[in-house]
């Protein structure tokens, strides 16, 4: 009996924590929306980095104190481009301006994300799109939702009828990874109905979770890019693996999220 009560209490606690996390990302998103609208001009890499940092800082000034107050003992991932496993315990993995370069160019594809990772497993995530007012949430074992409405991945079983997507992993990527991305796009152009290639990864993964896109893949990548979408897709009934079909972890060198009906064919295509 006591074990059942303890498990229920933890689940309730995580559900309350997710609700508060969603509030935090919406507040940060509102602050970024106030900065959105005009193309930010830059002439050098240094100017670009300063503009990106200004957006990050605007959101982090809201996110860091609120999330720290919610989980005072949780660690904080400082670099949104970091990859690999985290040390034991709880960690906040936050991308304060996912799709930041799009924001600077007055493009609408950007978001604010916050994910709580416990013992290297994402427990809950909240992703807010300020321009549409959409908030995507997922809690382990409780499903994925858009503004409270349950999400489910596509029931498509034919890759030839599927929309698929990929994303650039990061700036200044290793040449081998860049070439692998190019060859994978070529392979998918032969096998899929439509191939989309754009940043950021998280927005593609939201679409997989919502059943709008049937598969997403990426080579390399960072925790902040993939963890929110990995939890959303899993809780929406999708399959997560690396590009060769093996279990995915933050240490994996590739990532694939797909509707169950097309996952095996996507693995076959990406493995050519």
Automatic annotation (TrEMBL):
Record-linked InterPro entries: Inositol_monophosphatase-like
Alphabetical list of Pfam families matching this protein: Inositol_P
Source species, domain of life: Bacteria
SUPFAM superfamilies in alphabetical order: Carbohydrate phosphatase (SSF56655)
Record PANTHER family: INOSITOL MONOPHOSPHATASE (PTHR20854), INOSITOL-1-MONOPHOSPHATASE-RELATED (PTHR20854:SF4)
Protein name: 3'(2'),5'-bisphosphate nucleotidase CysQ
């Amino acid at each position: 009996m006591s074990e059942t009560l303890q498990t229920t209490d933890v689940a309730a606690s995580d559900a309350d924590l997710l609700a508060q996390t969603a509030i935090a990302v919406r507040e940060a998103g509102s602050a970024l929306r106030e900065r959105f609208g005009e193309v930010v001009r830059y002439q050098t890499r240094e100017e670009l980095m300063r503009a990106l940092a200004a957006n990050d800082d605007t959101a982090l000034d809201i996110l860091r104190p609120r999330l720290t107050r919610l989980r005072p003992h949780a660690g904080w991932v400082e670099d949104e481009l970091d990859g690999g496993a985290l040390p034991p315990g709880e960690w906040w993995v936050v991308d304060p301006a996912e799709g930041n370069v799009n924001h600077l160019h007055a493009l609408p594809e950007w978001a604010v994300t916050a994910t709580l990772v416990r013992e290297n497993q994402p427990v809950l995530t909240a992703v807010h799109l300020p321009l549409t007012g959409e908030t995507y949430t997922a809690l382990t074992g409780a499903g994925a939702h858009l503004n409270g409405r349950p999400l489910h991945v596509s029931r498509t079983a034919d890759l030839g009828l599927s929309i698929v997507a990929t994303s650039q992993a990061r700036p200044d990527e290793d040449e081998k990874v860049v070439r692998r991305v190019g060859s994978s796009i070529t392979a998918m152009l032969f096998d899929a109905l439509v191939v989309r290639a754009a940043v950021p990864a998280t927005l593609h993964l939201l679409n997989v979770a919502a059943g709008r896109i049937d598969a997403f893949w990426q080579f390399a990548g960072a925790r902040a890019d993939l963890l929110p979408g990995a939890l959303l897709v899993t809780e929406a009934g999708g399959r997560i693996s690396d590009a060769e079909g093996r279990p995915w972890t933050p240490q994996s060198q590739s990532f694939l999220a797909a509707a169950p009906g097309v996952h095996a064919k996507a693995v076959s295509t990406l493995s050519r």
